[in-house]
# Entry
Amino acid sequence: MPDFSAFDAYIDAHQERFVQRLADLVAIPSVSAQGGPAMHQAAEAVRDLAASLGLDARLVEVDPGQPPFVLAEIGPADASRTLIIYNHYDVQPPEPLELWDSPPFQLVEREGKLYGRGTADNKGNLTVRLSAIQAYRETLGELPLRILFVIEGEEEMGSPQMARFSQQQAALLKRCDGCWWEAGGVNDKGQSTLTMGLKGLAALEFHAKVMARDSHSAAGGVLPNAIWRLMEALTTLRRPDGTLTIDGLAEHLAPINPRDLELIATSDWDEQGMLEAFGITELLGGRRGKEAEIQFLLRPCMSINGIIGGYTGPGGKTVIPCEATAKTDIRLVPNLTPELVRELVRAHLDRRGFQDIQIRESEMGLRPAKTDPDAPIVHAASQAIQEATGKPAALAPNMAGSGPMYDLCDVHGIPTIAMGVAYRDSRGHAPNENIRLSDFLTGMKIAGRFFHQFAQS
# Structure
């Protein structure tokens, strides 16, 4: 085991440089949902940063005109282990802007926290990993493994190019022994979380058109209302406690892995912290303890993201809307695919007389992915966290969120772990997104040890 004292000291001594590196990336408004020249600017900035640190970095275009991938490699070509590091340079829209305490695309430090869009998701983690490589090479010498960065610009849109990229780069990816995913964080006890999979995603848009035009609401007792029609259809898909009631869905669910239940049985599920963070008194359906954690991590769920229809401006307007749209997502667990879920939902609604409700499937469709909790990469990451922080990793079988892990990794048989620098109040996807400076620096110290441990696994 190398002596990491010089490595740690290098990180502490150069923290201003690393923070500035993050500030430069945050300053680029790479909102994939809005597109524009900032996307290519961000890709070039990431490529140039990687190249400046000694990586062989290049842009890879899959669909002309769409945000390119950044591929960057470093380490001995004959290394016994090759690690993929997956990140993304795109971010969520910053709106509503009035809820930010500082400009979203300007990194601001306040009370030991770094604020700005992308700090937690995902430019902070990207900066940590690239900077850790620099610190390792400056203090410990050549990396003990080969590293391949795969950095995309459409993760926040469901990674529509990832499957094609993965097919095109299959020969390169199949040589890899593991993947370090883009997400992760630190729990309220100061333990780095370590997860081994994520849920899939089916993004469905439901549309109702019930009349040729809007009507005065005085006719509400005799004319159909598109928003009511939508709500009547959607409420057949889920109980108030969050349990999905889609016909046939339960028959397709894989049994929960007993090993996953073992991890949950020994985890520190912080129910109270979640209640306090969101200002509520109980979780959906009154779930508590381990039952709530199982629901959160291992079961499918459905959310209504927004409803478009009728009048929502100032004052009132007594109108019956003739059409309305609901944007939703369904989080998927093993054995569920976006295609299967859409078919089940369509059949479910048809059986109940909702043939008129259109279902539009977006490109944001992702399969669930899973890694064996006993895989060598899990042990390597756990050891690295213990050595860097003096605390054991907080193991979790799954992330509640989604990403293109199946298309990049599972399809090639590559085991994947996730650990990162966010924390409960990082506010990813929300105003005042932030990370703590201490976690930012500790993340680099974990990274260096992980490179060593994975090379030895």
Q: What stands out?
A: The mean pLDDT is 96.
